[in-house]
Design goal:
heterotrimer, A mainly alpha, B mainly alpha, C alpha+beta, A: mainly alpha, 3 helical TM bundles of succinate and fumarate reductases, about 75% helix, about 0% strand, B: mainly alpha, elongated, membrane (chain A), heme (chain A), Succ_DH_cyt_bsu_CS (chain A), metal-binding (chain A), transmembrane (chain A)
Chain lengths: ~130, ~110, ~230
């Protein structure tokens, strides 16, 4: 028995809902955005340290190639790559380019696949 | 404060900063891919010239605006209690402002010397 | 045929539960609704809405194997078993597969779903050119089944403030109508962080619309119309 005052029963178990590819690309866009937002204050402090002296600059570069540094950079480059690709997708869809369902599904899949590949390429090539 | 960037204004700001930041990301990528290997002298020269410093600050302003609109959307979606919502939005605004001030100060000290 | 169905009776249950059914469809059973009606003859406590049984009334919307759809349009041979049936996600459950649509219809009424035109009506109907009429295609066909809004994450988080894909498609149906003179007021009403701009173009709405309509396209057009209006 339920009393009238209790919160209404709802079905909203996200694990029992089959999400289309567009929804996966969208939540990844949100997650990558949060990661980049967290990275922003860190980026400012990296900027500050990198300008201090050549020694500090090299220390930062060494930290970037350490195990934990590589992990953080891998996450950050994936986040940036996905956020940029999914962002381009949304900017185009806003003006009606690729906003049909079939094209939107294809571009969502493309962004999800391309982002880790780009991130891996940047990491392996080592831009810093 | 919730209305700081309401409705269409926030949507337009998000899109405008997105386009600007896209250009910045592509320019940065080109600079890293096509230029000489990155070292302190080249890095320092890029960031501390008046043009470089102003562009860097502008990019951080765009990042802060873009991040604010996105973060606010997330809070409006997932955080319903009013008090917690205002506290979170305030904290995000504070961190973004502090980040911006820090970048300006760092570039100002290096530009002055 | 195996089915797993969400059961909840507010008078006797504290929590919803899943109930397994096994039933053999008969020769004439083509759609999921046919099986549900057969099940109801075995277990008359099972509750669901249905009326026209041909995708016009929009009453038998439910979550079928994780996606929203109309039981009357869902072919049996396309279904993976066990067929898992749940009420529309995010909507308050009244009983079993029946949900409370009050908020959904409140949003629909809020966009003034009728022509507004203060000019005195002509002798016969207000005429449209074939082009003007063409713009209403893909908009007027909505049957308000709520499959889209109940599949929209933005609507799940803010069901009281976001109008949702169904309401916004209907809003655009009147914005796009050449006979309606309230376009500016309609757009002003929609220019709000919640009412329109909760949409993040996830496109779950367009994915599940049983009529093949595209609420996401209507929302895109509303945003562009707002942009034009303010520039």
């Amino acid at each position: 028995m339920r009393t009238p005052s209790s919160a209404p029963v709802k079905f909203l178990n996200l694990w029992q809902i089959r999400f289309p590819i567009g929804a996966i690309a969208s939540i990844a866009h949100r997650v990558s955005g949060v990661l980049l937002l967290i990275a922003l204050p860190l980026l400012a402090s990296v900027l500050a340290r990198s300008l201090q002296s050549p020694a500090e600059f090299d220390a930062l570069r060494a930290a970037a190639t350490s195990a934990s540094g590589t992990l953080i950079l891998a996450l950050a480059t994936w986040a940036l790559a996905h956020h940029v690709l999914a962002g381009i997708r949304h900017l185009l869809m806003d003006v009606g380019i690729g906003s049909g369902l079939a094209q939107a599904r294809r571009s969502a899949r493309a962004a999800l696949i391309a982002a880790p590949i780009i991130a891996l390429y940047i990491l392996v090539r080592g831009l810093w | 404060m919730v209305r700081l960037f309401s409705g269409q204004r926030a949507w337009v700001a998000q899109r405008f900063t997105a386009v600007m930041l896209l250009a910045a990301v592509l320019a940065g990528l080109m600079w890293l891919l096509l230029g000489e290997p990155l070292d302190y002298t080249r890095w320092y020269a890029l960031l501390t010239t008046p043009v470089g410093a102003v562009l860097t600050v502008l990019i951080f302003v765009m990042l802060a605006v873009h991040g604010w609109v996105g973060a606010r959307d997330i809070v409006l979606d997932y955080v319903q209690p009013r008090g917690l919502r205002l506290a979170l939005l305030g904290a995000i605004l504070l961190v973004l402002a502090a980040t911006l001030i820090r970048v300006v100060l760092v570039l100002a000290t290096h530009g002055a010397t | 045929m195996q089915l797993r169905i969400y059961r909840f009776n507010p008078d006797t249950d504290a929590q919803p539960r899943m109930q397994d059914y096994d039933i053999t469809p008969e020769a004439g059973d083509k759609k999921l609704l046919d099986v549900l009606i057969r099940l109801k003859s075995v277990d008359d406590s099972l509750s669901f809405r249905r009326s026209c049984r041909e995708g016009i009334c929009g009453s038998d919307a439910m979550n079928i194997n994780g996606r929203n759809g109309l039981a009357c349009l869902q072919s049996l041979d396309e279904l993976k078993q066990p067929v898992v049936l749940r009420p529309l996600p995010g909507f308050p459950v009244i009983r079993d597969l029946i949900v409370d649509m009050t908020l959904f219809f409140a949003h629909y009424h809020s966009i003034k779903p009728y022509l507004i035109n203060p000019e005195s009506p002509p002798e016969r109907e207000r005429l449209q050119t074939p082009e003007q009429r063409e713009r209403l295609n893909g908009l007027y066909e909505c049957i308000l089944c709520a499959c889209c809004s109940a599949f929209c994450p933005s609507f799940w988080w803010n069901p009281d403030k976001f109008i949702g894909p169904a309401g916004l498609l209907q809003a655009y149906r009147f914005i796009a109508d050449s006979r309606d003179t309230a376009t500016a007021e309609r757009l002003d009403y929609l220019d709000d962080v919640y009412r329109l701009y909760r949409c993040r173009t996830i496109m779950n709405c367009t994915e599940v619309c049983p009529k093949g309509l595209s609420p996401s396209h209507a929302i895109e057009q509303i945003r562009l119309a707002l942009l034009k209006q303010s520039s």
